From TrEMBL:
UniProt entry tagged with the keyword DNA-binding: yes
Molecular function in Gene Ontology: DNA-binding transcription factor activity; transcription cis-regulatory region binding
Name assigned to this protein: LacI family transcriptional regulator
Classification via PANTHER family: HTH-TYPE TRANSCRIPTIONAL REPRESSOR PURR-RELATED, LACI-RELATED TRANSCRIPTIONAL REPRESSOR
Length: 356
């Protein structure tokens, strides 16, 4: 038996898998007692159990429902429109996979690419395999028509809201609180004048069509600024949240007002805003502070690095699985809002004395 350092950090299932030379999924199946059902070789099973003993790992299976026993397959389905192939949203699947594994379950993932026929086939295939529940996910938060096949079963809507009354629970980012967080970031830095919006207008109706995200972020922003007695100096709604839209919107704002701070509704809009400000001879954050949303990978590469409110994709996926497994009976139709953390970087500064 090899010696394990006494100051080692908490041993994980991944450590066991590495020691045994198997995948994490195989290690989980062995330690949860399901290796024989899934035809894992006796040699692999022996290696996993010996590795767990060698590294000091204790398998703790989370059982969230007292009645979780016979009749369950310990498999879950994850059906999305485009999450699986999206580099940005792939963390949602990783969060769901990890949460499922922590509960001794396997996650089957399927992608529809927005095609209803493909969606029906995926649902049918998963139900045929008697999955214990289905996570029905969307790439961007939006209203969805819940398929009849899962409406009366055990399912959770992830990043999606039903377009009609539904008994299914919902897991979404807390966009309203994210809007509050963005507005507070500017107020805390001392900004009171010249705050402009890029991506949505001032009025609730002046947002991209069907965008729940924009509408909820605007609610939070308005709530905090109104409470502080701060008026929005200008705003431009953008149908698409892309760099060229952010560039055009910021350039248009500069033709009417002198912004002291921008709240961009997406990091890609902020990227375009940076270019427009630079073309106008304005520096971030010395002349104009910028705060945004999403925590896109480019946010950390922008110069200066962009302060942004992150969409917690990993946590969303994990939360959806937790909600799905929380009760044996049909879940209550509850909306679970996952907090969106603020990533402080270098794009916000106090206004210059002359600007106060």
């Amino acid at each position: 038996m090899r010696e394990i350092p006494v100051n080692r950090q908490r041993v994980t299932l991944a450590d066991v898998a590495k020691e045994a030379g198997v995948s994490v999924t195989t290690a989980s199946l062995v330690l949860s007692g399901r290796s024989r059902d899934l035809r894992i070789s006796a040699a692999a099973e022996l290696r996993v159990r010996q590795a767990a003993k060698d590294v000091g790992y204790r398998y703790r299976r989370k059982v969230l429902s007292a009645g979780l026993s016979a009749g369950f397959t310990h498999t879950l389905g994850f059906i999305s429109d485009a999450v699986a192939t999206s580099g940005l949203a792939g963390d949602m699947i990783r969060g769901a996979v990890d949460a499922a594994r922590e509960h001794g379950a396997l996650l089957f993932v399927g992608e529809t690419d927005g095609d209803r026929e493909s969606e029906q086939k995926l649902i049918a295939a998963m139900l045929d395999r008697r999955v214990d529940g289905i996570v029905y996910a969307a790439m961007n938060t939006r209203h969805v028509s819940v398929p009849d096949e899962i409406e009366g079963g055990r399912a959770v809507l992830l990043n999606a809201l039903p377009d009609r009354s539904s008994p299914l629970p919902v897991v979404v980012p807390d966009e309203v609180e994210a809007g509050r967080t963005a507005a507070r970031a500017l107020l805390d830095a001392g900004h009171r004048d010249g705050i402009c919006l890029v991506g949505a207008g001032v009025d609730p109706d002046d947002v991209p069509p069907g965008s729940i995200t924009a509408a909820e972020r605007l609610v939070g922003i308005r709530e905090v600024l109104d409470a502080a007695g701060v008026e929005i100096a200008g705003a431009r709604s953008c149908r698409w949240w892309l760099p060229e839209q952010g560039f055009a919107a910021t350039k248009a704002l500069l033709g009417r007002v002198r912004p002291r701070a921008l709240i961009c509704f997406d990091d890609r809009l902020a990227f375009g805003a940076y270019q427009a400000l630079s073309d106008a001879g304005l520096a971030v954050p010395a002349d104009v502070s910028v705060v945004s949303f999403d925590d896109h990978p480019l946010a950390g590469w922008m110069r200066p690095a962009l302060t942004t409110i992150a969409v917690p994709r990993y946590e969303l996926g994990a939360k959806a699985v937790e909600v799905l497994l929380a009760e044996q009976r049909l879940p209550a139709p509850t909306v679970h809002r996952v907090p969106m953390p603020r990533r402080d970087r270098s794009s916000i500064a106090s206004p210059r004395p002359a600007d106060r």
